User: Fold this.
Amino acid sequence: MILTITMNPSVDINYQLDSLQLDNVNRVSTVSKTAGGKGLNVARVLSQLDENVATTGLLGGTIGDYIKNQLHDQKIPEKFMGIEKESRNCIAIIHDKGKQTEVLESGPVISEEEGQAFLKHL
Assistant:
C-alpha cells in the first residue's frame, strides 16, 4: 500500500479562453475541475498504473466534499481528516495560444488542535 499525504489539496479549475482580456468580460469556452494537489496527483497516477494506493491529508467545507467525491468516483481510497476552514480552489486560465495565467488561493490555516489531531490521525 502506498499512502500519499496532501496537506493543502485544492479543486483545480481550468478555464479555456481564446484570448484573455483584462478589465473586460471573458467568456469561457471549456471548463474542467479536478481534485488537485501534489499528493492527489501522485495518487491518481499510481491508481492508473494499478498500484494499491490511498490518500490522506486535510479537507474542509464544500470544496473538501467535492474533492472527496471526485476521489470516490475515481475509486481512490481516502482517509482525509476534516478541518473547520474551507479547502482551496486553484484556477488556471489557458489563453492566447497556450499561455497560462494562474490564480491560486493560499488555503486554510489550521489550528494547533487540528495539527495535533492530524498527527494522531496519521
